[in-house]
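Supplementary Note 3. Input sequence used for the single-chain structure prediction.
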Amino acid sequence: MPRNTLAALALLALSTAVNASQAAAVQTDASQPDAPQAALASAAESTTAASDFTLTANVTLASQYRYRGLMQSNNRPAIQGGVDLVHASGFYLGNWNSSISWLGDSNSAVSAPIEMDFYGGYKGELAPGVPVDLGVLQYYYPGDYPSGYASPDTTELYAGIGYGPVTFKYSIALTNLFGFADSKYSQYLDLGANFDTGLWGLTLNAHVGRQIVRNVDNGSYTDWKLGVTRDMGQGLAVSLAYLDTNADRAVYTNTHGRYLGRATALLSLTKTF
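The predicted structure, written as discrete structure tokens, is reproduced below.
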């Protein structure tokens, strides 16, 4: 065969092999065209799922701890804090804690220096501008108690509704209320309002509540509060309030002789993360 013909055949064979190799490579790549896109889509879905949840934490230093108008820390400073996990759908879980002394103040044999609250529920809108809040709250008081001591642990269901600056919340105890005997189904009615002044980050706070304690003579009472909160920025807020009650002294006086429902001023500093 002539040399020119051999050379031509060799070039043709080489060209065919190269083209076949390139075609195979293209086919191989085409067999997984969505691999990077699939990975990105999976990562995006994971990020979206994670972003559906919001986790916040808070810590408060208070001149004292009052709950429903009653002294919880024997007029001494309290440290408080909690965490909240909220889903975009409106469902939430949370925990809040505070130093206390009221249990030990009522019985020297009791050592229970902390209150731990666990709650969960749903927040949404009944109509535009009408928020609702439904949930359950467990008050837990770990500590050492003498034999036969009535447990202060309490479980409540609550339902709240708001309109503009005004809110109303109804709570009902599914257990005895904070250790009161035969007080199951006691109730608390809470009417509050927060008015943004539009000046210097100031919000005016007002509250009136009615604690109804079942089967406890003179156990029911009314409490109220007037205060102001200033938003300092960076998640920092300072509050000053005046609180008072008409709680019966015979029922709500501790072993130190201190009336738990007396009028007081309360100063607090809160940081939210």
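The longest helix spans residues 3-30. Residues 17 and 23 are 10 Å apart (CA to CA).
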